[in-house]
Amino acid sequence: MQHQRIAALLQAEPSMQEITVKGWVRSFRNDRFIALNDGSTIHNLQCVIEPDNYERALLDQINVAAAVAVTGTLVESAGSGQRVELQAKTVKILGKADPEEVAKTILSPKRHKLETLREQAHLRVRTNTFGAVMRVRAALSFAVHKYFQENGFYQAHTPIITGSDAEGAGEMFRLSTLDPKNPPLDEDGNIDYKQDFFEKESNLTVSGQLEAETYAMGLGQVYTFGPTFRAENSNTSRHLAEFWMIEPEVAFNDLDANMDLSEDFIKYVVKYALDNCKDDLDFLENRLIQEDKSKPQAERSPMELRKKLEFILKNNFKRVSYTEAIDILKSSKPNKKKKFKYLIEEWGADLQSEHERYLVEKHFECPVILFDYPANIKAFYMRLNDPDSEGRETVRAMDILFPGIGEIIGGSQREERYDVLKEKMDTMGIPEEELWWYLETRKFGSVTHSGFGLGFERLVMFVTGMSNIRDVIPYPRTPGNAEF
Length: 484
Ligand code: 4AD
Ligand code: MG
Fold this sequence. Notes:
By secondary structure, this protein is α+β, with helices and mostly antiparallel strands.
Protein backbone atom coordinates (compact mmCIF):
# COMPACT_ATOMS: atom_id res chain seq x y z
CA MET A 1 0.00 0.00 0.00
CA GLN A 2 1.22 3.47 -0.83
CA HIS A 3 1.63 5.94 1.99
CA GLN A 4 -0.26 9.20 2.11
CA ARG A 5 0.96 12.69 2.79
CA ILE A 6 -0.15 14.38 5.99
CA ALA A 7 -1.00 17.74 4.37
CA ALA A 8 -3.71 16.03 2.32
CA LEU A 9 -4.97 13.86 5.19
CA LEU A 10 -5.51 16.85 7.45
CA GLN A 11 -7.94 18.19 4.84
CA ALA A 12 -9.66 14.82 4.30
CA GLU A 13 -12.92 13.51 5.75
CA PRO A 14 -12.92 10.63 8.26
CA SER A 15 -13.14 7.29 6.49
CA MET A 16 -13.12 3.58 7.26
CA GLN A 17 -10.53 2.95 4.59
CA GLU A 18 -7.19 1.80 5.93
CA ILE A 19 -4.26 4.10 5.17
CA THR A 20 -0.56 4.30 5.96
CA VAL A 21 1.42 7.41 6.82
CA LYS A 22 5.18 7.63 7.12
CA GLY A 23 7.09 10.34 8.89
CA TRP A 24 9.25 11.34 11.84
CA VAL A 25 8.09 11.41 15.43
CA ARG A 26 7.91 14.92 16.86
CA SER A 27 6.58 13.79 20.25
CA PHE A 28 5.14 10.71 21.97
CA ARG A 29 2.92 11.24 25.00
CA ASN A 30 1.55 8.74 27.52
CA ASP A 31 2.53 5.77 25.34
CA ARG A 32 -0.50 6.74 23.31
CA PHE A 33 -0.21 9.92 21.21
CA ILE A 34 2.34 10.19 18.42
CA ALA A 35 2.72 13.59 16.79
CA LEU A 36 3.94 12.68 13.33
CA ASN A 37 5.44 15.05 10.78
CA ASP A 38 6.31 14.11 7.20
CA GLY A 39 7.44 17.50 5.89
CA SER A 40 4.34 18.09 3.78
CA THR A 41 2.99 20.67 6.23
CA ILE A 42 3.91 22.53 9.39
CA HIS A 43 1.18 20.55 11.16
CA ASN A 44 1.64 17.13 12.73
CA LEU A 45 -0.81 14.30 12.39
CA GLN A 46 -1.87 12.92 15.72
CA CYS A 47 -1.71 9.13 15.64
CA VAL A 48 -3.45 7.42 18.53
CA ILE A 49 -2.31 3.95 19.56
CA GLU A 50 -3.66 1.54 22.13
CA PRO A 51 -0.54 0.76 24.23
CA ASP A 52 -1.86 -2.62 25.39
CA ASN A 53 -1.72 -3.85 21.81
CA TYR A 54 2.04 -3.24 21.49
CA GLU A 55 5.14 -4.80 22.99
CA ARG A 56 7.14 -2.64 25.38
CA ALA A 57 10.19 -3.01 23.13
CA LEU A 58 8.34 -1.38 20.26
CA LEU A 59 6.87 1.42 22.37
CA ASP A 60 10.39 2.19 23.59
CA GLN A 61 11.47 2.81 20.02
CA ILE A 62 8.83 5.43 19.29
CA ASN A 63 11.20 8.24 20.14
CA VAL A 64 11.53 11.81 18.98
CA ALA A 65 13.17 11.86 15.52
CA ALA A 66 12.56 8.17 14.83
CA ALA A 67 10.95 7.34 11.49
CA VAL A 68 7.77 5.31 11.68
CA ALA A 69 5.00 3.98 9.47
CA VAL A 70 1.56 4.05 11.02
CA THR A 71 -1.38 2.20 9.50
CA GLY A 72 -4.96 2.82 10.58
CA THR A 73 -8.06 4.80 9.82
CA LEU A 74 -8.74 8.50 9.79
CA VAL A 75 -11.29 9.40 12.46
CA GLU A 76 -12.78 12.59 13.83
CA SER A 77 -10.47 13.86 16.55
CA ALA A 78 -11.68 14.04 20.12
CA GLY A 79 -8.83 16.35 21.07
CA SER A 80 -8.69 20.05 20.37
CA GLY A 81 -6.37 21.49 17.75
CA GLN A 82 -7.10 19.07 14.95
CA ARG A 83 -10.14 17.97 13.00
CA VAL A 84 -8.98 14.42 12.31
CA GLU A 85 -6.48 11.96 13.72
CA LEU A 86 -5.22 8.53 12.80
CA GLN A 87 -6.58 5.64 14.84
CA ALA A 88 -3.59 3.31 14.56
CA LYS A 89 -3.80 -0.44 13.99
CA THR A 90 -0.09 -1.06 13.46
CA VAL A 91 3.09 0.90 14.01
CA LYS A 92 6.33 -0.04 12.30
CA ILE A 93 9.70 1.45 13.19
CA LEU A 94 11.45 2.40 9.95
CA GLY A 95 14.47 4.17 11.41
CA LYS A 96 15.46 4.27 15.06
CA ALA A 97 16.71 7.37 16.91
CA ASP A 98 18.58 6.91 20.19
CA PRO A 99 17.18 9.46 22.70
CA GLU A 100 20.63 10.07 24.20
CA GLU A 101 22.04 10.97 20.79
CA VAL A 102 19.00 13.04 19.90
CA ALA A 103 19.40 15.04 23.11
CA LYS A 104 22.78 16.27 21.87
CA THR A 105 21.26 17.72 18.70
CA ILE A 106 18.81 20.38 17.62
CA LEU A 107 16.25 17.61 17.14
CA SER A 108 15.70 17.60 20.90
CA PRO A 109 12.33 19.18 21.56
CA LYS A 110 13.20 22.57 22.99
CA ARG A 111 13.92 26.04 21.66
CA HIS A 112 17.28 26.31 19.93
CA LYS A 113 18.99 29.49 18.81
CA LEU A 114 19.20 30.08 15.05
CA GLU A 115 23.00 30.14 15.42
CA THR A 116 22.93 26.64 16.89
CA LEU A 117 20.65 25.44 14.10
CA ARG A 118 23.14 26.77 11.55
CA GLU A 119 25.84 24.56 13.01
CA GLN A 120 23.58 21.56 12.36
CA ALA A 121 22.34 22.61 8.96
CA HIS A 122 21.98 18.94 7.98
CA LEU A 123 19.26 18.52 10.63
CA ARG A 124 17.62 21.91 10.80
CA VAL A 125 15.07 21.30 8.05
CA ARG A 126 13.39 18.99 10.55
CA THR A 127 12.51 21.92 12.81
CA ASN A 128 9.24 23.82 12.40
CA THR A 129 10.98 27.06 11.46
CA PHE A 130 13.17 25.59 8.74
CA GLY A 131 10.44 23.33 7.42
CA ALA A 132 8.29 26.42 6.98
CA VAL A 133 11.05 28.57 5.45
CA MET A 134 12.10 25.89 2.98
CA ARG A 135 8.53 25.14 1.88
CA VAL A 136 7.98 28.87 1.28
CA ARG A 137 11.29 29.01 -0.59
CA ALA A 138 10.19 26.15 -2.85
CA ALA A 139 6.81 27.81 -3.46
CA LEU A 140 8.49 31.09 -4.40
CA SER A 141 10.81 29.27 -6.77
CA PHE A 142 7.82 27.70 -8.49
CA ALA A 143 6.06 31.08 -8.62
CA VAL A 144 9.07 32.62 -10.35
CA HIS A 145 8.89 30.08 -13.17
CA LYS A 146 5.10 30.32 -13.31
CA TYR A 147 5.21 34.10 -13.70
CA PHE A 148 7.67 34.05 -16.55
CA GLN A 149 6.11 31.08 -18.30
CA GLU A 150 2.68 32.75 -18.14
CA ASN A 151 4.12 35.94 -19.57
CA GLY A 152 5.87 34.58 -22.63
CA PHE A 153 9.44 34.36 -21.33
CA TYR A 154 11.86 31.53 -22.13
CA GLN A 155 14.23 30.26 -19.49
CA ALA A 156 17.82 30.53 -20.68
CA HIS A 157 20.35 28.27 -18.99
CA THR A 158 23.36 30.53 -18.91
CA PRO A 159 26.75 29.04 -18.02
CA ILE A 160 27.99 28.67 -14.47
CA ILE A 161 31.60 28.51 -15.61
CA THR A 162 32.62 31.61 -17.52
CA GLY A 163 35.69 33.32 -18.85
CA SER A 164 34.45 36.83 -18.09
CA ASP A 165 33.46 39.13 -15.26
CA ALA A 166 29.87 40.15 -15.91
CA GLU A 167 29.82 42.90 -13.30
CA GLY A 168 33.37 44.11 -13.88
CA ALA A 169 33.84 44.16 -10.12
CA GLY A 170 36.57 41.53 -9.86
CA GLU A 171 34.82 39.47 -7.20
CA MET A 172 35.19 36.08 -8.83
CA PHE A 173 36.07 32.61 -7.66
CA ARG A 174 38.82 31.27 -9.88
CA LEU A 175 38.58 27.81 -11.37
CA SER A 176 41.62 25.79 -12.23
CA THR A 177 42.80 22.22 -12.51
CA LEU A 178 46.45 23.20 -12.46
CA ASP A 179 48.61 21.81 -9.67
CA PRO A 180 48.55 24.62 -7.08
CA LYS A 181 51.95 23.57 -5.75
CA ASN A 182 53.62 23.54 -9.10
CA PRO A 183 51.69 25.50 -11.72
CA PRO A 184 53.20 25.92 -15.19
CA LEU A 185 54.65 29.40 -15.71
CA ASP A 186 54.97 31.49 -18.83
CA GLU A 187 58.08 33.40 -19.93
CA ASP A 188 57.27 36.26 -17.54
CA GLY A 189 56.93 33.92 -14.57
CA ASN A 190 53.13 34.24 -14.41
CA ILE A 191 50.88 31.21 -14.18
CA ASP A 192 50.32 29.93 -17.70
CA TYR A 193 46.57 29.45 -17.94
CA LYS A 194 46.96 28.36 -21.56
CA GLN A 195 47.90 25.01 -20.05
CA ASP A 196 44.83 24.99 -17.80
CA PHE A 197 41.67 22.98 -18.46
CA PHE A 198 39.93 25.69 -20.51
CA GLU A 199 43.20 26.99 -21.93
CA LYS A 200 42.35 30.38 -20.41
CA GLU A 201 41.45 31.89 -17.05
CA SER A 202 38.00 30.91 -15.92
CA ASN A 203 35.77 31.53 -12.96
CA LEU A 204 32.35 30.88 -11.48
CA THR A 205 29.78 33.28 -12.84
CA VAL A 206 28.79 36.38 -10.87
CA SER A 207 25.73 36.91 -13.09
CA GLY A 208 24.14 35.37 -16.18
CA GLN A 209 23.17 38.78 -17.50
CA LEU A 210 25.57 39.19 -20.40
CA GLU A 211 24.72 35.80 -21.88
CA ALA A 212 21.02 36.42 -21.18
CA GLU A 213 21.27 39.66 -23.15
CA THR A 214 22.52 37.76 -26.19
CA TYR A 215 19.56 35.39 -25.84
CA ALA A 216 17.06 38.24 -25.51
CA MET A 217 18.38 39.40 -28.90
CA GLY A 218 17.04 36.17 -30.41
CA LEU A 219 14.19 34.97 -28.22
CA GLY A 220 12.91 38.42 -27.25
CA GLN A 221 12.13 37.74 -23.60
CA VAL A 222 14.24 35.42 -21.47
CA TYR A 223 15.02 34.80 -17.82
CA THR A 224 17.68 32.96 -15.91
CA PHE A 225 17.31 31.36 -12.51
CA GLY A 226 20.53 29.91 -11.25
CA PRO A 227 23.31 30.03 -8.72
CA THR A 228 25.77 32.92 -8.84
CA PHE A 229 29.00 33.34 -6.95
CA ARG A 230 30.69 36.35 -5.42
CA ALA A 231 34.02 36.33 -3.69
CA GLU A 232 33.27 39.59 -1.91
CA ASN A 233 34.36 39.57 1.69
CA SER A 234 31.04 40.83 3.04
CA ASN A 235 30.19 39.18 6.31
CA THR A 236 26.71 40.66 6.66
CA SER A 237 23.24 39.28 7.26
CA ARG A 238 22.38 39.99 3.59
CA HIS A 239 25.36 38.61 1.66
CA LEU A 240 26.21 35.10 0.55
CA ALA A 241 29.17 33.91 -1.50
CA GLU A 242 26.77 31.58 -3.35
CA PHE A 243 23.26 32.87 -3.99
CA TRP A 244 20.50 32.28 -6.49
CA MET A 245 19.58 35.02 -8.88
CA ILE A 246 16.68 35.55 -11.26
CA GLU A 247 17.57 37.68 -14.26
CA PRO A 248 14.94 38.57 -16.85
CA GLU A 249 16.10 40.36 -20.00
CA VAL A 250 13.71 41.90 -22.50
CA ALA A 251 14.37 43.22 -26.00
CA PHE A 252 12.70 46.56 -26.78
CA ASN A 253 12.05 47.39 -23.08
CA ASP A 254 13.28 50.74 -21.83
CA LEU A 255 13.90 51.51 -18.16
CA ASP A 256 10.27 52.44 -17.43
CA ALA A 257 9.07 49.14 -18.85
CA ASN A 258 11.79 47.41 -16.82
CA MET A 259 10.47 49.04 -13.64
CA ASP A 260 6.91 48.00 -14.52
CA LEU A 261 8.03 44.41 -15.09
CA SER A 262 9.99 44.23 -11.85
CA GLU A 263 7.13 45.58 -9.78
CA ASP A 264 4.56 43.31 -11.40
CA PHE A 265 6.86 40.31 -10.95
CA ILE A 266 7.58 40.89 -7.26
CA LYS A 267 3.90 41.45 -6.51
CA TYR A 268 2.98 38.24 -8.32
CA VAL A 269 5.40 36.03 -6.41
CA VAL A 270 4.54 37.61 -3.05
CA LYS A 271 0.84 37.08 -3.77
CA TYR A 272 1.55 33.49 -4.76
CA ALA A 273 3.14 32.88 -1.35
CA LEU A 274 0.25 34.57 0.46
CA ASP A 275 -2.26 32.42 -1.43
CA ASN A 276 -0.39 29.13 -1.23
CA CYS A 277 1.67 29.11 1.96
CA LYS A 278 -0.98 30.11 4.47
CA ASP A 279 -0.07 27.71 7.29
CA ASP A 280 3.66 28.32 7.02
CA LEU A 281 3.21 32.09 6.95
CA ASP A 282 0.91 31.84 9.98
CA PHE A 283 3.63 29.99 11.81
CA LEU A 284 6.37 32.39 10.71
CA GLU A 285 4.26 35.40 11.62
CA ASN A 286 3.75 34.05 15.14
CA ARG A 287 7.39 33.24 15.41
CA LEU A 288 8.22 36.88 14.67
CA ILE A 289 5.66 38.13 17.16
CA GLN A 290 7.30 35.98 19.85
CA GLU A 291 10.79 37.05 18.80
CA ASP A 292 9.80 40.72 18.88
CA LYS A 293 8.68 40.45 22.48
CA SER A 294 12.29 40.06 23.57
CA LYS A 295 13.44 43.06 21.53
CA PRO A 296 13.47 46.76 22.43
CA GLN A 297 10.53 48.67 20.93
CA ALA A 298 12.66 50.40 18.30
CA GLU A 299 13.84 47.10 16.79
CA ARG A 300 10.42 45.48 16.54
CA SER A 301 8.77 45.00 13.16
CA PRO A 302 6.38 47.85 12.44
CA MET A 303 3.95 45.44 10.76
CA GLU A 304 2.98 41.82 11.20
CA LEU A 305 4.33 39.55 8.49
CA ARG A 306 1.18 39.07 6.45
CA LYS A 307 0.18 42.73 6.74
CA LYS A 308 3.63 43.65 5.45
CA LEU A 309 3.22 41.36 2.43
CA GLU A 310 -0.27 42.68 1.71
CA PHE A 311 1.05 46.21 2.00
CA ILE A 312 3.50 45.46 -0.81
CA LEU A 313 0.70 44.23 -3.04
CA LYS A 314 -1.53 47.24 -2.45
CA ASN A 315 0.94 50.07 -2.88
CA ASN A 316 2.82 51.38 -5.88
CA PHE A 317 6.57 51.36 -5.47
CA LYS A 318 7.79 54.93 -5.19
CA ARG A 319 10.03 55.86 -8.15
CA VAL A 320 12.70 58.36 -7.20
CA SER A 321 15.76 59.55 -9.11
CA TYR A 322 19.17 59.28 -7.47
CA THR A 323 19.45 63.08 -7.62
CA GLU A 324 16.16 63.51 -5.70
CA ALA A 325 17.28 60.88 -3.20
CA ILE A 326 20.53 62.71 -2.54
CA ASP A 327 18.62 65.93 -1.87
CA ILE A 328 16.37 64.11 0.59
CA LEU A 329 19.31 62.46 2.31
CA LYS A 330 21.36 65.65 2.48
CA SER A 331 18.68 67.48 4.38
CA SER A 332 17.63 64.46 6.48
CA LYS A 333 17.83 64.51 10.27
CA PRO A 334 20.42 61.71 10.61
CA ASN A 335 22.64 63.47 8.09
CA LYS A 336 22.37 66.87 9.78
CA LYS A 337 22.88 65.37 13.23
CA LYS A 338 25.78 63.28 11.89
CA LYS A 339 24.04 60.03 12.79
CA PHE A 340 24.92 58.35 9.47
CA LYS A 341 28.22 56.54 9.49
CA TYR A 342 28.81 57.85 5.96
CA LEU A 343 27.56 61.43 5.72
CA ILE A 344 26.06 62.53 2.44
CA GLU A 345 28.02 65.57 1.40
CA GLU A 346 27.50 65.77 -2.32
CA TRP A 347 26.03 64.36 -5.49
CA GLY A 348 28.00 61.33 -6.65
CA ALA A 349 28.21 59.58 -3.29
CA ASP A 350 27.52 55.85 -3.38
CA LEU A 351 24.54 54.98 -1.20
CA GLN A 352 25.21 52.74 1.79
CA SER A 353 22.60 50.49 3.28
CA GLU A 354 21.96 53.00 6.10
CA HIS A 355 20.89 55.53 3.45
CA GLU A 356 18.77 53.03 1.56
CA ARG A 357 17.04 52.01 4.75
CA TYR A 358 16.40 55.60 5.74
CA LEU A 359 14.71 56.28 2.41
CA VAL A 360 12.54 53.17 2.54
CA GLU A 361 11.79 52.82 6.22
CA LYS A 362 11.75 56.42 7.45
CA HIS A 363 11.17 58.78 4.57
CA PHE A 364 8.89 57.03 2.06
CA GLU A 365 7.73 54.10 4.21
CA CYS A 366 7.20 51.93 1.15
CA PRO A 367 9.31 50.12 -1.46
CA VAL A 368 11.38 52.54 -3.50
CA ILE A 369 12.82 52.28 -7.01
CA LEU A 370 15.86 54.51 -7.29
CA PHE A 371 16.95 55.28 -10.86
CA ASP A 372 19.45 57.26 -12.92
CA TYR A 373 22.55 56.77 -10.81
CA PRO A 374 25.91 58.50 -11.40
CA ALA A 375 27.67 56.68 -14.22
CA ASN A 376 30.90 56.11 -12.34
CA ILE A 377 29.40 54.12 -9.45
CA LYS A 378 27.57 51.64 -11.70
CA ALA A 379 28.53 48.80 -14.05
CA PHE A 380 29.91 49.34 -17.54
CA TYR A 381 26.92 47.93 -19.44
CA MET A 382 24.33 50.48 -18.29
CA ARG A 383 22.96 52.94 -20.81
CA LEU A 384 24.41 56.42 -20.61
CA ASN A 385 21.94 59.32 -20.29
CA ASP A 386 22.53 62.69 -21.87
CA PRO A 387 24.34 64.86 -19.31
CA ASP A 388 21.91 66.60 -16.91
CA SER A 389 21.45 70.39 -16.64
CA GLU A 390 24.59 70.57 -14.53
CA GLY A 391 26.58 68.43 -16.93
CA ARG A 392 26.63 65.36 -14.69
CA GLU A 393 26.68 61.88 -16.21
CA THR A 394 24.11 59.32 -15.14
CA VAL A 395 23.14 55.87 -16.35
CA ARG A 396 19.76 54.22 -16.72
CA ALA A 397 20.17 52.08 -13.63
CA MET A 398 17.51 51.07 -11.15
CA ASP A 399 17.70 49.53 -7.70
CA ILE A 400 14.64 48.38 -5.80
CA LEU A 401 14.89 48.92 -2.07
CA PHE A 402 12.69 47.00 0.34
CA PRO A 403 11.92 47.60 3.99
CA GLY A 404 14.11 45.51 6.28
CA ILE A 405 16.08 44.19 3.30
CA GLY A 406 17.60 47.10 1.45
CA GLU A 407 18.48 46.34 -2.17
CA ILE A 408 16.42 43.42 -3.43
CA ILE A 409 16.75 44.11 -7.17
CA GLY A 410 19.43 45.74 -9.29
CA GLY A 411 18.85 46.36 -12.98
CA SER A 412 19.19 48.73 -15.89
CA GLN A 413 18.53 49.60 -19.47
CA ARG A 414 21.57 48.33 -21.35
CA GLU A 415 23.93 50.34 -23.51
CA GLU A 416 22.94 49.26 -27.01
CA ARG A 417 25.17 51.71 -28.95
CA TYR A 418 28.36 50.06 -30.14
CA ASP A 419 30.61 53.12 -29.97
CA VAL A 420 29.40 54.26 -26.59
CA LEU A 421 29.76 50.77 -25.11
CA LYS A 422 33.20 50.29 -26.56
CA GLU A 423 34.42 53.57 -25.19
CA LYS A 424 32.94 52.80 -21.79
CA MET A 425 34.68 49.42 -21.70
CA ASP A 426 37.95 51.07 -22.61
CA THR A 427 37.73 53.74 -19.93
CA MET A 428 36.59 51.28 -17.27
CA GLY A 429 39.33 48.81 -18.19
CA ILE A 430 36.98 46.01 -19.25
CA PRO A 431 39.11 43.70 -21.44
CA GLU A 432 37.72 43.46 -24.96
CA GLU A 433 39.38 40.07 -25.52
CA GLU A 434 37.06 38.67 -22.86
CA LEU A 435 33.88 40.39 -23.97
CA TRP A 436 34.31 40.71 -27.75
CA TRP A 437 31.18 38.60 -28.25
CA TYR A 438 29.11 40.90 -26.02
CA LEU A 439 30.29 43.92 -27.93
CA GLU A 440 29.60 42.22 -31.24
CA THR A 441 25.87 41.86 -30.48
CA ARG A 442 25.75 45.67 -30.76
CA LYS A 443 26.60 45.37 -34.43
CA PHE A 444 23.74 43.22 -35.65
CA GLY A 445 20.30 44.68 -35.10
CA SER A 446 21.14 46.16 -31.74
CA VAL A 447 18.05 47.48 -29.93
CA THR A 448 16.94 49.05 -26.70
CA HIS A 449 16.76 46.34 -24.05
CA SER A 450 16.59 46.07 -20.28
CA GLY A 451 16.68 43.61 -17.45
CA PHE A 452 17.28 43.17 -13.78
CA GLY A 453 18.52 40.72 -11.18
CA LEU A 454 16.52 39.67 -8.14
CA GLY A 455 18.48 38.11 -5.29
CA PHE A 456 16.30 35.09 -4.55
CA GLU A 457 17.44 34.73 -0.93
CA ARG A 458 16.62 38.38 -0.24
CA LEU A 459 13.13 37.73 -1.55
CA VAL A 460 12.81 34.65 0.68
CA MET A 461 14.00 36.74 3.65
CA PHE A 462 11.38 39.33 2.95
CA VAL A 463 8.53 36.85 2.59
CA THR A 464 9.45 34.67 5.58
CA GLY A 465 10.56 37.53 7.84
CA MET A 466 13.86 35.79 8.58
CA SER A 467 16.50 38.37 9.40
CA ASN A 468 19.65 36.49 8.42
CA ILE A 469 20.25 35.35 4.85
CA ARG A 470 22.02 32.24 6.21
CA ASP A 471 18.63 31.02 7.39
CA VAL A 472 16.82 31.02 4.05
CA ILE A 473 19.16 28.80 1.99
CA PRO A 474 19.80 25.16 2.89
CA TYR A 475 23.60 25.34 3.11
CA PRO A 476 24.88 28.92 3.25
CA ARG A 477 28.28 29.74 1.81
CA THR A 478 29.92 32.74 3.47
CA PRO A 479 33.52 33.84 4.05
CA GLY A 480 35.17 31.14 6.15
CA ASN A 481 32.25 28.77 5.85
CA ALA A 482 31.76 25.93 3.37
CA GLU A 483 30.80 23.17 5.80
CA PHE A 484 28.37 20.50 4.56
O1 4AD B 1 22.98 44.36 -8.18
P1 4AD B 1 23.59 43.10 -8.71
O2 4AD B 1 25.04 42.88 -8.49
O3 4AD B 1 23.21 43.08 -10.25
C1 4AD B 1 23.60 42.13 -11.16
O4 4AD B 1 24.21 41.14 -10.93
C2 4AD B 1 23.04 42.41 -12.53
N1 4AD B 1 23.81 41.59 -13.49
C3 4AD B 1 21.58 42.07 -12.56
C4 4AD B 1 20.93 42.32 -13.89
O5 4AD B 1 20.74 43.46 -14.25
N2 4AD B 1 20.62 41.27 -14.64
O6 4AD B 1 22.81 41.85 -8.08
C5 4AD B 1 21.41 41.72 -8.26
C6 4AD B 1 20.75 41.34 -6.95
C7 4AD B 1 20.91 42.35 -5.83
O7 4AD B 1 19.95 43.38 -5.94
C8 4AD B 1 20.71 41.50 -4.61
O8 4AD B 1 19.33 41.26 -4.37
C9 4AD B 1 21.34 40.20 -5.03
O9 4AD B 1 21.35 40.16 -6.43
N3 4AD B 1 22.72 40.05 -4.53
C10 4AD B 1 23.07 39.24 -3.51
N4 4AD B 1 22.34 38.43 -2.73
C11 4AD B 1 23.00 37.73 -1.78
N5 4AD B 1 24.32 37.77 -1.59
C12 4AD B 1 25.10 38.59 -2.34
N6 4AD B 1 26.42 38.61 -2.16
C13 4AD B 1 24.47 39.36 -3.37
N7 4AD B 1 24.91 40.23 -4.29
C14 4AD B 1 23.83 40.64 -4.98
MG1 MG C 1 23.39 46.03 -7.08
